[in-house]
Write a structure and sequence with these properties.
Shape: globular
Distance between the termini: 26 Å
Strand content: under 5%
Structural class: mainly alpha
Strand order of the largest sheet: 1-2
Length: 438
């Protein structure tokens, strides 16, 4: 029976498939994300059942992390007070990032409660369906993108018209000619596919499971996302290689992928993709002016080099929450300035964006120090370990959650914000079933 609570969760999952949307709230870094609009519906569904009580352990965890953030601010009060970069003050950045963390932890509390209620009334199979419903809008838009980018059908105008229905005006046009599904850019689609791909193995129908795998494979190629390619391939091999029957499925899937590629003439597109993407994963030569991928790689390596230098300078308590982006420009290595992106990020101008640091985990080490980041990493590890030991969950469901979590954690080595909703959703599912056993 489809209750209001189940419907609220399904709608929430569909909403996480959208970013860069006109249907969003002005919430800073969360602007463009649709899911905050549906969070009050989750609250309402819990209120109607008179069940808004949250776990004391999670509240205590939030306060412990808040104390770590506060201590970092106290130890770095002078530097935070004197920092001003690209029109952003240190305290503005510090407070803004703490508010974002508060919002995301509130999401964790509410979704843990929502999934705990589902665990009492539904099977893990229904929760799997919730995850997979988020694929519906991606399949609808992504299928047209594949036809346009790979089969070369004249569908760009159709995609622009569809995008205008839900995308922010800044993201309607396909300037880079890369698939992005219902997201604002191709890398965002790549992280979504890494998150959702393990759940495809929970589809009961072998034919539907097969078709979804083929679709995701071609959508990855059409998106040009290196991260999605590597992470999804890793996830498929881990899940598929866990049982002999799955190995047969993987071999059949690969054979079908080759057949479809040759039958429809996709081979040139695929070979171009592999030559460009995989050929430049480790390309950091100095002459990068005419190669976007070499520029991107050089910028990322420069940022990570700068973060390590910042960590060495303040290893224990870090620089303070949100301060990495405001201070990283003075730590870029000289060789990094061969990238025009590094030059833009280092310029103290209101017309250029704040420097991305490209890794949430390195960012936490730099901003919270070894002590604060170590506490956060230990909490994540404990949640994963306890969930992995649950004896009552179906193996396939548990493996999908675990692999998805690992892929999201890996993707956060190249994404630097708390706002990645997939991490918090997976944590809430794992916590809900852990508490259910207790």
């Amino acid at each position: 029976m489809l209750t209001f609570h189940k419907l609220a969760i399904i709608l929430f999952f569909i909403s996480i498939a959208f970013s860069g949307s006109i249907f969003s709230l002005p919430l800073g870094e969360l602007s463009g994300d649709v899911w905050p609009i549906f969070l009050p519906i989750i609250v309402l569904s819990l209120s109607l059942s008179g069940d808004l009580f949250v776990r004391k352990e999670l509240v205590n965890c939030f306060f412990c992390l808040s104390i770590v953030v506060l201590l970092g601010g106290v130890f770095n009060f002078d530097s935070i007070n004197n920092t001003d970069f690209k029109g952003r003050s240190g305290f503005e950045r510090y407070l803004g990032q703490y508010i974002l963390f508060f919002i995301m932890f509130t999401l964790l509390l509410l979704m843990t409660k929502a999934f705990s209620k589902l665990a009492l009334t539904s099977t893990p199979e229904f929760i799997s369906i919730c995850f997979l419903t988020s694929l519906v809008p991606v399949v609808l838009v992504g299928s047209i993108e594949i036809l346009w980018l790979i089969l070369k059908l004249p569908l760009e105008g159709v995609l622009d018209s569809i995008g205008a229905l839900f995308r922010n005006s800044d993201y309607v046009s396909y300037i880079s000619r890369r698939a992005r599904g219902t997201h604002f850019e191709a890398p965002a689609l790549g992280m979504y596919l890494a998150f959702i791909s393990p759940f495809v193995f929970l589809v009961k129908s072998k034919l539907n499971r097969f078709l979804l795998c083929v679709f995701i494979g071609f959508l990855i190629f059409a998106s040009g996302s290196r991260v999605a390619l590597l992470l999804c391939l890793f996830g498929v091999l881990v899940i598929g290689g866990s049982r002999k029957r799955n190995i047969v499925f993987l071999v059949s899937l690969f054979a079908a992928f080759i057949f479809v590629t040759l039958f429809f003439g996709f081979e040139q597109f695929i070979m171009d993709y592999l030559a460009v993407k995989l050929g430049f994963i480790f390309n950091v030569e100095q002459d990068v002016n005419e190669n976007f991928h070499a520029i991107s790689n050089l910028t990322r390596l420069s940022s990570q080099n700068a973060l390590f230098n910042m960590l060495i300078e303040k290893p224990l308590f870090g620089w303070g929450l949100g301060q990495a982006a405001l201070n990283i420009s003075t730590y870029y290595p000289d060789w990094g300035y061969a990238s025009y992106e590094v030059k833009e990020y280092a310029a103290n101008s209101l017309e250029t964006p704040l420097p991305p640091v490209y890794s949430l985990w390195l960012r936490l080490l730099v901003e919270l120090g070894i002590i604060g980041a170590g506490a956060a990493f230990y909490m994540l590890f404990c949640v994963y370990r306890k969930f992995s030991k649950l004896p009552f969950l179906p193996t396939k469901f548990k493996n999908s959650i675990r692999v998805s979590f690992i892929l999201v954690v890996l993707s956060l080595f190249q994404f630097d914000s708390f706002r990645l909703v997939y991490l918090w959703i997976l944590l809430s599912v794992m916590l809900a079933f852990t508490y259910f056993e207790e």
